[in-house]
Every structure is written in C-alpha cells, then in structure tokens.
Write a structure and sequence with these properties.
50% of the residues lie in helices and 15% in strands. The chain is α+β, with helices and mostly antiparallel strands and 878 residues long. The protein folds into four domains: 5-64; 124-342, no CATH class; 346-526 and 748-876, no CATH class; 537-746, no CATH class. A six-stranded mixed β-barrel has the order 3-4-9-6-8-7. Strands 14-15-20-17-19-18 form a six-stranded mixed beta barrel. A four-stranded antiparallel β-sheet has the order 13-21-12-22.
Length: 878
Amino acid sequence: MRWFPSFGFQRRKRELQEEIDAHLQMAFADRVARGETGEKARQAAAREFGNIPLVQDVTRDTWGQGWLEQLGRDIRYALRQLRKSPGFTIAATTMLAVAICANSTVFSWIDGTMLRPIPGARDTGDLVSLQRGERNFSPTPPFSYLDYRDLREQNHTFAGILAYHHDWITLTGGAQPQRVYIANVSANYFDVLGIKPVLGRFFLAEEESRPDAVPSVVLGYSLWKTRYASDPAIVGKSIEIARHPVTVIGVAPAEFVGAMPGIRQDLWVTLDPLGTDVWRMTHRSGGAVWLNVIGRLRPGVSRGQAAQNLDTLMHNIVAAYPDDHLGENRITLDPMWRSPFGANGYLAATLPILLAIAGLVLLLTCANVATLTLVRFVSRRRELAIRQSLGANRMQLVRQMVLEGVVLSIAAGAAAFVLTSWTSKTFAWFFPANAIPLTFNGSMDHKVVIGIAVSSLLAGMLCSALPSWRSSHAPAIEVLKAESASISGGSRNRKLLSALVVAQIALSLPLLLCSGLFLRTLRNLAAANPGFEQDHILTASVGTNIAGYSRDEEKVIRHKILDRLSALPGVKVASFTDWIPMTLSHKGEDAYPEGYAPHPHEALRVYHAEVAPRYFESLHIPILEGREFTPDDDEKAPRVLIVDQTAARRYWPGQDPLGKKLMVWGRPFTVVGVVRNSTHMSVNEAPEPMVYMSFFQQGYETIVQVETEGNPADLAPAVENAIHEIDTQLPVFDVRPMRESTQMASIFAVMQSALAGMFALIGLVLAVTGIYGVVAYRTQMRTHEIGVRMALGASRVDVLRLVLLQGLWLTGIGLALGLAFALGLTRFIARLLYGIGANDPVTVASVVMLLGAMSLLACYFPAHRAMRRNPVTAIREL
C-alpha cells in the first residue's frame, strides 16, 4: 500500500489532481479528434482514468487496509481491463485453453494407463513385473509353476509374489455361448494386489493347486452386471465354463479388470481348477513355462536389491535343474508403468514423447500470448505512466499486470477442464477392432485436475511476467511527453517483441520436423511389403479349444470346417493357423539344433506358429526349399517343421537345413521346408527367426484363414454360417479381413502421426500469426518514418524491402535456433521412425522451406499495406 506522510499530503494531493486534470483533457481531446461527441468523449475519458484504483486511492491515506481488500480491487480492475479488450481476451483464452487441453489430454492418457497400471490395486508403485531373459516389448510368459513357487517361498525382498496366465474361454450353459477372457491365478493373487471383493470372498491358499470337486470362480464386475443382471445372490451359485460346472465364490470390484496393464479379464479361476493339466504343474521346461509373475516389494527394498536376490535364487534353481533351464535365466524387474506384459510397454515408448511435444505447443502458445500482451501493455503506457506519477511503484504495476494474465489463464484452465473431460475419453478411438481385449482410456482424477491448474498458473505467469516487468520500466515523464505516434515502447520493448517472435519460430520448427518424420514413417509403413498377402484374406476364430470339446471332437470339427469352407463360392484356399501376424502378439520358445550345447545364459529364441496345409499358399509365401505341410503330418507322424530364411541362416549357416533336427520343448523336430521371410510383429522389426509347426500335430487355438477372390468382408457372413451349420454351439468370433487385424502393427505410428501433426499445425498457425502481428505492429509504429522516406524519394519497392527485411531477419534467427534445437530433439524419436533417419535432409529442408515461406507471407501483408500508404497522410500521423 502507498502511504504518504501527513505533512506533505495536501501538497501532493493538489499536484496529483492537476496532473489528472491535464491528462483528462488530453484524453478528451483525443476522443473528440476521433469523432466522438463531446459528452460521450468526456464520459469515456473519465472512465478511462477514473477506474484506476491507484488514482482513486492516492487521495486518501490507505494505511491499515488489508491485503485481501487490495487483492479484490486488483482482480476487479483486471476484469475491467480484460472486458475492455474483448478481442485480445477471447483470442488469448482460446489459444491457452487449446494448448492446456492438449497437455492435459495426453497426461490423462498417461494417468489412465501408466500411472494407474492396475486400477483398484493398492500402492502400484511397489509392484514390479518379473521377466526372465532379455527384455523386449512382447515377451512370452517367463516362469513355470515350480520356479514361481520356489521364488515366492524362498525370497526375502518381496511382501508377496503372484502368478497368472490368461486366455479366452466360453461361458456355456446359457441360451447363447459367450466368449470371455479368463485368468488362471495363484491363490494369493488378489491379496498381493490389495483387492477386496464386492461380494463373497477370493481364493484360499489351499485352493491354488488342489482341484476341488467343483472348482471356484471369481466374476468380474462387468460380467456379473451384464450376464448375471447384478444378481446379489450370485455367490454360491453354479455356472458353466466350457461345459464344466464351477461355483461362484465372489465378485471383483468395478474398477479392477486384471493385473496385466491395458488387458481386460472377465473372470478368475485357480491355476489348474479342473486338475486336467497336471504335467504343466509338475514340470519346469517346455510347455510348463506359462506364468506371468508380479511381486510387491517389501518396504525399503529397492528394485535393484530385489533383482539381485531373485537372481541368486534363480541361479540355485538352474544349478539344481540345468536341463530344464537352457538359455537366458537372469531376472529383470520392471515397474508396472512400463511393464512389458500388456500395453504399457508400448505406451511408455509413445505417450511421454507426445507429452513433450504438447509441452512445446504450450510454450509456443505462451510466447504468442506474451507477444499480444506486450503490445497491449505498450498501448497502455500512458495509463501506466500516470499511475507511476500518482505514486504507484513498479512492483504494484507488475503485480496488477501479472494478475491480468493469471485471470486470463484461470479462464483458459476452466475451458481446458471442460474440453479434457471429453478428450480424455478419445484414447480408445485410435485402436481398431481386434482380438485383444484392450481396456484403457484417459482418466479425469485429481492428478489431471491438479495438472490443469498448475499448467494454467504457469502459463499465466509466462504470458504476463516478462511483458509486465518490461512495461513497468519506462520513465513516466518521457512517456507522458511522447507523441501518440511514438509510443512503440522504446528499444527494449522492440527487442522483447523480436525475441518472442524468434522463440515462436524456434519452437514451431521442432514441432513441424517431428510431425514430418512421423508422417513419412506412417507412409513408409503403409507402403512396406510385409512378405505375405493380406488384402484378400478373411480370418475367423473358432473356439473349439475353449468350448469344452474333447480332442477327438475337435479333430472331426476341424476337418469338416476345411471341407465346408473350401466348397464355398469365392473361396480360393482355406487353411488353419493359431496366429495372425502383425497383431502385436507372438509365441516364442528356445530352440537348439540337435547336439548343440548352449553357452551359459545363451538363448536361441524363435517365434513359432502352428499352420495347416496350404497356409503358405493362401498368404502367397513361397516355399524356397523342401515341401509344405500335408494332411498326413498329424499326431501319428514324425514331428516336422518349416523354417524361414532367418532361422535357417541362424542355426545352419552355409548348410542345407533340410533334414536337420531342431530341439523345441526338449523334443526333436525335423526340418522339411524353408520359406521366405515375412513380417511377424511389425514391419520395422529386426529380423527374427521363425519356425512353423504342423497344425494337426500341435494346434491348440483354431483360426480359420480363407483366401477370397473378391472383397473378404463380403464373404464373412457365408463363412460364419458355414461353421455354424456344422455345430450351432460353436463359438465363432473376430470374423474380419486380415487387413483390419494387421492395422494393430502400425497403430502407435498412426497415433504419433495424428497427434504430432495436429500439434504441428497449431504451432505453425501460432508462429505465423505471431510474426504477422509483430511486423504489422512495428510497421504501424513506423508509419511516420515511412511517410518521410517516401516523401524524400523512396519507392514502394524500397518500403516493401524495408518491412520484409525486418521480418525475414527475425525469421532467419528463429529458423537457425529452431533447427539446432530440432536436430537435438529428434534423437529421442529415432527409435520410433521407420525407413527414414532422425535428421532426414529432405524432411528438414521441406520444414524449413515451409516455415520460411509462411513467415514471408506473414511479413508481406503488412509490407504491402505500408507501401500503398499516402506519404502525406503517413507524415501527418503523429
């Protein structure tokens, strides 16, 4: 508060009143000159100076007034000033709201996935996923039940370790079979996660590996609500899973959908509830390696300590059972936010990059709004000078100007909150229909709200702090004496305006470059040849293995399906497989040539798939050596497999692989053919060895694969009807063209390209409007100078060159700084690119030319207006 000693108060009051009267007269004269009527001009001038709090307050002693009262007056004054400039207020609020919403939307996706990897679980920061062997994005389950049990019981760094395995299964016993995702879990599964049941109870320790007469099941909340109509008496009732009766013992809470991040599970049973797979529960290698494992760290134990403890235990297990632990056995631990089991392994590589790009957009927006704010404060310099002459110090002026920016940003934050409540739910839109039960989206919890509030306040400070501080430093006497045409703010403000424009261009260039690289990556992915036909292929999953059919019944059904589909009009080839490429899933096993002794920690891991005869013919994958599978390659025949070129070179370099033996699951398979390489996970993957086994020897899951003569979608109803004609109870699902399924391989590239492109477009618009506004403003301030130059003989071309040069000089500096920044930033996205380098010269040159051309265009319009001015009129504008 300003306080004046009593002995000088009256004299100071008279001086201030005289100064106010003088400037009221100046304001009145300016308004009359602009055509306003006398009374209207007098009222407007009075409002202009009478609404200034410090003018009102300086004529009385303000000693003793509370800071809250002063803050209230400052806020009211800020609102009045913003209301007087509706164009600036609306434009700045809109720009800030969009930029804040971009950040809060991406953050809401991170919060809903990475920061809440297991919704409903307690203290997820203490949970870690265990992986055996080399870390990768899509690993296979790493542990057998016996290894898991030994690690669980012998470690001293975990409060608990759980195990689970998930797969599709069919709910039978109702009017219509329903396919659901089921998880086989250890008995301590819910206890380790800290989940409490809504109804009933969860599993007891003795239920883990001892099958009861009637197994127990825990229902997911959504399944309980939809299929069983939220029956409150469901506990204790019997339901049917794959034609087997089970007893419901509990219902999980609504927010809990399973322990694998991003994957929905509908119900849970114990590890071997029916007692039908004793071999998998009593062995340590081959098909007995089937469990994912999560541990909860003890308080005060780090991940490094826990990993060292488990490594020691695993070393002892390997020493005790060396034949069951060939290959890599070192254990790595990952926090659940980046767990490779589930969706977070992919999201952790994508969403932080998008958040960083959105952060650049916010900085660019703040620079743009700061430019508008500085121009606005410059136009109010006479008002600010009067307030200084009336006794206001610089901190008071800065405080009130910053408060205007904060009020603006609060309004933008409120708008961003409303927008984010909708945009946070759009994450799932990026993912096409597929066979994976994905369940992730953004969330609007307290962390997102706090993020919006913090972003809004920081944006308000960034937009107004520097312009306010700079505007408050002009000497009041010089400003009051200056002519109206000379209030450009002095060289300091001109330098600040130039710096803000340079910052906008420098920040927009990295956005455009990242967007260009992502767009070219997406184009390269779309144009890449995956090595197989996908445009005329229809696939459909048939749940013979999950509907309770016996092995003999499955064999009969499968042969009937092949015969029926092969006879359909429009079908060229029909076959079976258990895997669809480029769907972000695979199966892997350690495989060793017969007689090969692996080195310690050496893993010769391969992808594998089970395929039926004519599979390679349907996908147009040529057989390079040997033969394809035949119907005779069944369970009674010797085990055979076909390898791709990468596998042949890996296991038998420089040799003929035909007739060689490859040990998989500890059993020998004979190589009968070599096929051309094709894509497995995504087209930008490093080549990995692939082996194909005979479907009729190993097949478990049944996926029909049909090559059609025309559009495969047109044949989908006929294929589904043909299968149901064999058995109306056969569950048939995911009937779709293969092209739709393989879109999953490029979904993250699509997400990166779409969002980066949108952010880059916002950045380009902000940069161009920023340079246009500054050049137009500075040109307006030089109107008198331009008029004098033209009167002294300067041509219109000279004026055009004068204005363009000042804009192009700023553009050149911004491009140089932005290019240096961009070339350093693109190193962080290099691993997300395909078919293009992080500093691709064509993309860099294109982006620089685009931004330079748009900046030139932005400079041209004010230059064109300036050169068409009448020199006499321009000289008279003082």
